[in-house]
Design a protein that fits this description.
Elements: H1 4-30, H2 34-41, H3 50-74, H4 77-97, H5 106-115, H6 121-148, H7 173-183
């Protein structure tokens, strides 16, 4: 089963990269501008350290690249192509998450210094496209791995549909357990769900 582990590690690494990309994106917006400069200057907060950022990102990128190396040495051409695509879309997402809005005028640069970094609608669209591209690349790789392993085809984006009528759900799982216990003669469970 040399097929399962590298595929799983690539998918797991992709998930970690996407979470870190979202965190970096939020940090750029929250930790920029006058307040951040003030906090760093007066040592209320330490400045970002590029080496710490590298180590933080490597926690997901290193296993993902190790899995990619294993895929390159053991898989066929289609599997390699799909794995390369997944890693490339991860890097595209990382790039989109740290993109900065262009500031061509003095007023825009001053605004960036005072207010901080803000995204443009185009940047938001590019980020959303990168997230979707990565999700689809992961789906294609997993689907290929499943077919190679002779597993049934499944909808990897399947979700549970909410009931049309929310009022139809009137009991909680604990209430159902209490009712079942009472019907079976075991006595009712305590109301708070505690077991004595």
């Amino acid at each position: 089963m040399h097929f399962v582990r590298p595929c799983w590690n690539c998918s797991r690494g992709q998930w970690g990269v996407s979470l870190r990309a979202a965190s970096m994106r939020a940090a750029i917006r929250l930790r920029s501008g006058f307040k951040e400069g003030f906090d760093v200057t007066f040592r209320y907060r330490k400045p970002p350290d590029p080496l710490e950022l590298h180590d933080w990102q490597a926690q997901d990128l290193t296993p993902m690249n190790a899995a990619l190396s294993e895929i390159w040495t053991r898989w066929d051409q289609e599997g390699i192509r799909l794995a390369n695509d997944l890693v490339n879309t991860c890097m595209d997402l990382s790039d989109a998450s740290v993109a900065l809005a262009p500031a061509s005028s003095v007023a825009q640069r001053l605004s960036r210094q005072v207010i901080g970094e803000r995204g443009t609608p185009e940047m938001e669209e590019a980020y959303d496209r990168a997230v979707k591209a990565m999700a689809h690349a992961r789906k294609r790789l997993a689907g290929y791995a499943r077919s190679t392993l002779k597993l049934d085809a499944v909808d990897l984006f399947a979700q549970v549909e909410p009931p049309d009528d929310q009022s139809a759900v009137t009991t909680t799982p604990m209430a159902t357990q209490r009712e079942d216990a009472a019907e079976n003669g075991r006595g009712a469970l305590p109301a708070d769900g505690a077991v004595s």
